[in-house]
Amino acid sequence: MGKRRSTVVIVSSDDDNDNDDVFTIGRNCSSSNSKPTLRNSKSVLNSKSRTAYARPTAKKARLSHPLSTSAELLSNFDEYKFLSGDLADDFAGFQVSTDSRRLDGVESWVYKYRPRSLEEIAVHKKKVEEVRMWFEEKLSIPKQGSQNYVLLITGQAGTGKSATVRVVASKFGAEVCEWNAPTPTIWAEYVHNLNAGVTYISKLDEFENFVERVRKYGMLSSSLSGSRQPMVLLVEDLPVASGRIAQGRLLNCLQLLVKSVQVPTVILITDYSAGDSADAGMRHWEELSSSLESAGACKMAFNPITVNSIKKVLSRICKQEKCNTSSEQVNLIANASGGDIRHAITTLQYACLRQEKKVLVSSEKCTSNLEAKVHDHGQKDAGSSLAYGRDQTLSLFHGLGKFLHNKRDTECTISHSDDGFYLKEGFTRLPLKMDAPEKVLCQAYGQARPVAEFLHENVLDFLSQDAIEDAWSVVSYLSDADCLLSSVHRTVTRNYEIENVIQSAAASVAVRGVLFGNAHPSPSRWHSIRRPELWQAEKSTRSNMHEMERQRLDHFYTLGLANISAICTDYRPALKWLGYRASLPLEHADVNNSLIRDNSLENDELVDTYPQNQAGDDFTDDDIEEW
Amino acid sequence: MLWVDKYRPKNLDKVLVHEEIAENLKKLVTEQDCPHLLFYGPPGSGKKTLIMALLREMFGPSAEKVRVENKGWKVDAGTRTIEIELTTLSSTHHVELNPSDAGFQDRYIVQEIIKEMARNRPIDTKGKRGFKVLVLNEVDKLSKEAQHSLRRTMEKYSSSCRLILCCNSSSKVTEAVRSRCLNVRVNAPNNDEIVKVLEFIGKKENLQLPPGFSARVAVKSNRSLRRAILLFEACRVQQYPFTNTQAIPPMDWEEYVTEIASDIMKEQSPKRLFQVRGKFYELLVNCIPPEIVLKRLLSELLKKLDAELKHEVCHWAAYYEHRMRLGQKAIFHLEAFVAKFMSIYKGFLIATFG
């Protein structure tokens, strides 16, 4: 089922969708050239047709593009260039014509081999059973007013959430009616629509309307179609809400849905891995799911699929496809997938294609790749790791822990004489017990500025107490990194390419500086990683500055447009002394008092918030050790 | 009213320090042709006083009738509109503003707002000058781009508009701007001059000044006239009649910097460095500019330092002061300086005392 469907679609669940829905390789393609599709959200739910909603012509046009053009389109994006080119190559070897809407030869195995029966689902039996029980309960028991009809399923991508729901629903012969998020409107499209007189409807609005309709007329379509089939509502893509207000709206809307919907409803929320948790959007989803749960929704969490069941599925597919993939390779794919079955199957399909056309990727390299994952020096063949496996992600704290602890081998194993230059005694360091710092940064999604700030805040704890020389070299590297970072803002016109280079250079300088400078790390012991105090300090500085500007305005005669530094360094301390004078004109006393008060307040705040920060960000040494 | 304001000379004839400059300015104005001016000098040397007096000389008492406005401006910058809010101090003849308050948007301020103001020629009533004066404070804090556009504005609107620029260090003003202005260097007043001013105020306020008292205030003021007068008034509030043993109230942040300096001298370790960082934050939160903190810290450290280290320490202070300009987060560079100092000092201690 294409994710890009523009409207609410009614699909009969027993129908084989394979025929009408084509999955082009590289969902990236389809998402990157999302064409404006006609949106007609009103006439959907009560449309009588039980077959798939007639697709707007635009979509057809898109699908009839030969694959090569979409690959060309893609080539704008450097990152995908290599991959897509490769893919196109491989598939071209198969002489696939994508001109027809049917991709007879290559059909995505993910869809071809999606589970048809409960036994085929790779998800843990117990979970499937739970879902089944829930459906049984909701579908068989006659309606009562107070019953709650919402099931909330969370889990990482590719853990079979929607597959489970579909299969279970079809087992009960229920009709799945789903909400798929409308195609995002790109800016150019928006402008075009605006000129054409089409008003833009926010995706959130659309969703709200939908929920409203469902609440009011819930079973309308089912009754119209005349069948006695039960109906299940599946909400798969919640609209993206950014900012407090929008998030609040979404939350309200969903809570309403939870409270009042009379149809069995399944809401799917995809968890993101811990590595992404640094950004605030994540917390929003967590909040959402917990508040929905408290509103009465039944929550189930799907875990990543175990390696064994992925292996089972993969070998089943291999058998059916009659391709001779070695069990080693299946193992490898299963291990590298990180519990994402969709990814595993796609990788398998890709691997099989490669086999027939190209030389087999030497399996030794692959296995060694896995073993060396923990302990390599970034010189691994990039090609083999690209072929399989999702990129590993790390949490930011994990990465920082690595840098700060600065674990090194006890003896130098690589001889320096090979690369032809010699370092003085003072500059040699033992090899690092981790990947190249840049790679770790990349895995932890470390951005230069926050990484530098976190390192700056915490690094002094990790230095030996005698090593002030080390402290200087660490801090001076951080100062270099800061200079690099701010040079970004110096350029007149923004050049993102240059900025990227500078950013990564700065991050690299900061991290490597910390690693290099900390020549005598203090013995590893319990350390908490604190949030940079700098942030709080900057915030207070800004608010104080603002306050001062405001007061300068109020008492302009005294302070005039004197610059802030003069006010802070001269006027304020003097006014503090003058505050003792009773005969001081009222306004000055005011200035004075309020300044002092602000000041003390600010300090209190600092003190108050600080322990909190510590408590919030405490990490036991065990955690860091373990990583 | 503070004494600083009360005894600020209102016109060019009454100034007590920089009399020569005042005389020249007066001549300049009476000759009817006033070039663009650039006043530069350390804080508390009397730049603003001279500018205000000059404006009064040009336009008469009406230049003193100023009002403060917090104006919002809309600047059309290519594809988007930028809204900037800025405080201005204006009379019918002049407008004063701090373009650097706009932060990184300063070049829009300079380009658009100044252009707009300069375009509005004041109504030419008889005998009055046909130009408006723009006083721009803290020009040295403007970005390079802003200074460039300032240069263009100066040329384009020189017939209708005069600029008076005011800054601490002329080295941070681009050559192009400097060469288009008459540069007026305003020195920090020396101690004798400060004493003269303080005694003048003392006489006006009918105060009994013990001999040498005003000299002590002057020394304490670090050659800043503003601070001298403020301190003088603070002394008056604390204890009057003055005695020669009377303590002159210190500036609290300076005390704090002294404390930091002695912390640094006492122990040199990463842990101490961390404590010092906390104190720096305290200063920065109170909006004390980091450059001033660094300068003050250096002078405190130099007081206690062996002569053979002084040169090296000064070198590093200058190095990190420069870094601070290049970078964004002052704390990184302040801390780097302290770390460097600690490591130098520790090495020295080990070398001399073993």
TrEMBL record, chain A:
GO MF annotations in UniProt: ATP binding; chromatin binding; DNA clamp loader activity
One GO term describing the cellular component: nucleus
InterPro entries: Checkpoint_prot_Rad17_Rad24, P-loop_NTPase, RFC_lid
Disordered: annotated segments: 32-60, 606-627
Domain of life: Eukaryota
Keywords on record: ATP-binding, Cell cycle, DNA damage, Nucleotide-binding, Nucleus
Amino acid composition bias (Polar residues), ranges on this chain: 32-50
Subcellular location: Nucleus
Biological process (GO), any one: DNA damage checkpoint signaling
Ranges of Acidic residues composition bias in the record: 618-627
Alphabetical list of CDD domains matching this protein: HLD_clamp_RFC (cd18140)
Nucleus as UniProt keyword: yes
Cited Gene3D superfamilies: 1.10.8.60, P-loop containing nucleotide triphosphate hydrolases
PANTHER family documented for this protein: CELL CYCLE CHECKPOINT PROTEIN RAD17 (PTHR12172)
Family membership noted in the UniProt record: Belongs to the rad17/RAD24 family.
Protein name from the UniProt record: Cell cycle checkpoint protein RAD17
Gene that encodes it: LOC110804563
TrEMBL record, chain B:
Entry GO MF terms: DNA binding; DNA clamp loader activity
GO BP terms, alphabetized: DNA repair; DNA strand elongation involved in DNA replication; DNA-templated DNA replication
GO CC term, one of those recorded: DNA replication factor C complex
Subcellular location: Nucleus
Keyword terms: DNA replication, Nucleus
Domain of life where this protein originates: Eukaryota
Principal cellular location given in the protein's record: nucleus
InterPro entries cross-referenced by the UniProt entry: AAA+_ATPase, DNA_pol3_clamp-load_cplx_C, DNA_Rep/Repair_Clamp_Loader, P-loop_NTPase
Record-annotated AAA+ ATPase domain positions: 33-192
Pfam families (alphabetical): DNA_pol3_delta2, RCF1-5-like_lid, RFC_C
Primary role: May be involved in DNA replication and thus regulate cell proliferation.
Protein family according to the UniProt entry: Belongs to the activator 1 small subunits family.
Subunit structure: Heterotetramer of subunits RFC2, RFC3, RFC4 and RFC5 that can form a complex with RFC1.
Protein name per UniProt: Replication factor C subunit 3
Native organism: Spinacia oleracea
